[in-house]
Design a protein that fits this description.
This protein has 344 residues and is of the alpha/beta class. The chain is built from 13 helices and twelve strands. The chain binds guanosine-5'-monophosphate and manganese (II) ion. Guanosine-5'-monophosphate binds next to strand 11 and strand 12.
């Protein structure tokens, strides 16, 4: 049996709002990952089953390895269809905010969503949620928004409206936010949910294959290059750094999603508990941070790169030169020396 994590009052309030609304928009965070797309499309299928008119909006495009999901081709990409996105947000009588905690995380859609006249429901697992929604279902202790989506649908007593497509998207989101159930995945409840999803007819092995075994040749060669040539270790701090320039990515014909997971790889080295990946984009530098154990990368991300996220998986941005972002990291590292040794 599932325990009741989401407060009953939030469930009832959200259910009433859904009953009253017909034009529904679902938004999720910039550079959407498997949990963002999985939870959004899961809700999309569920609401379609309820007979609602639904659109999923994302600020920018998402990786090809998520495009197999049913409904992915119907997702509206804000940076390509700005006016349509704006009009849908304005006209919606209900907006779901999934897998993000602050309107900054949806880039250009942020002000439109915050100022929109419709009702708003946030379902998310990042700490410190904004308060612009009518219902905020925020559970940082749960490893994915997709798991929360499963719980949300069940608790409304509408499990029968979860179809196979919805179940597949939930599984994909739960799987990607736990590294295929290799971290943040010790709760027995996760496996109870998976058994329910299997009952809905999902093929979990096929989903794994579609997400993790469909890379391009270039992507695999880039991975080899990064590990052999670019990974630097800082053994005294139990840390690792990978820096990748824009030019290097061009050489390997980088596509969105090609570097996904690279930041996790150094954590497979014995004694490395903190990994940072600094990647140059056209107009900014993107930083990804991961850790094992209790070392809080969200604090490091917030302090050093004005970012945030979860305890073990966070990100941030830097506007300036690549070498300055690297210098910022190297200067900050000694300040965390104590936490990095205690946690190892
Ligand atoms: P990733 O490294 O996969 O891009 O991001 C990992 C996690 O860090 C995301 O799920 C999100 O919670 C958080 N994150 C990534 N980039 C940013 C950012 O620029 N700002 C904040 N506040 N959080 C971020
Ligand atoms: Mn997530």
């Amino acid at each position: 049996m599932l325990n009741k994590i989401i407060p009953e009052q939030s469930i009832q309030k959200a259910k009433k709002i859904i009953e009253r609304c017909d034009k529904i928009v679902i938004v999720t965070h910039v550079s959407p990952d498997g949990d963002a797309i999985g939870s959004s499309l899961a809700l999309y299928h569920f609401l379609l089953q309820l007979g609602k008119s639904v659109n999923v909006l994302v600020p920018n495009n998402f990786p090809g390895f998520l495009k197999w999901m049913d409904g992915a081709k119907d997702i509206i990409v804000g940076e390509w269809k700005e006016n349509l996105a704006k009009d849908l947000i304005k006209a919606a009588d209900l907006i779901f905010c999934l897998d993000f905690n602050t309107s900054k995380r949806i880039d250009q859609l942020g002000p439109w969503v915050v100022e929109a006249p419709g009702k708003k429901i946030m379902i998310d697992h990042h700490p410190y949620p904004d308060t612009f929604c009518d219902v905020t279902i925020s559970h940082p202790e749960i490893s994915s928004t997709s798991e929360l989506m499963f719980r949300f649908i069940c608790r409304m007593g509408l499990f029968e409206f979860m179809d196979k497509s919805c179940a597949e998207c939930i599984y994909a989101g739960m799987m990607t936010d736990t590294g295929a159930f290799t971290y943040n995945s010790n709760s027995p409840q996760i496996y109870f949910i998976i058994s329910e999803l299997l009952e809905k007819g999902i093929d979990k092995d096929a989903i794994y294959d579609k997400v993790y075994n469909r890379y391009s040749e270039c992507r695999l060669r880039l991975q080899g290059y990064v590990l052999y040539e670019k990974m630097r270790l800082f053994p005294e701090y139990h840390a690792s750094l990978i820096v990748l320039s824009y030019e290097e990515q061009l050489k390997f014909q980088w596509k969105r999603g090609d570097t996904e997971g690279f930041v996790n790889m150094p954590l497979s080295i014995e004694g490395i508990i903190f990994s940072v990946f600094i990647r140059e984009e056209e107009n900014m530098i993107k930083i990804s941070l991961r850790s094992k154990g209790t070392f809080a990368v969200n604090e490091f991300a917030a302090d050093v790169f004005n970012g945030g996220g979860h305890l073990n998986a966070s990100g941030g941005e830097f506007y300036g030169k690549l070498e300055d972002a690297v210098a910022l990291f190297e200067t900050a590292l000694p300040r965390y020396s104590e936490q990095l040794s205690i946690n190892n």
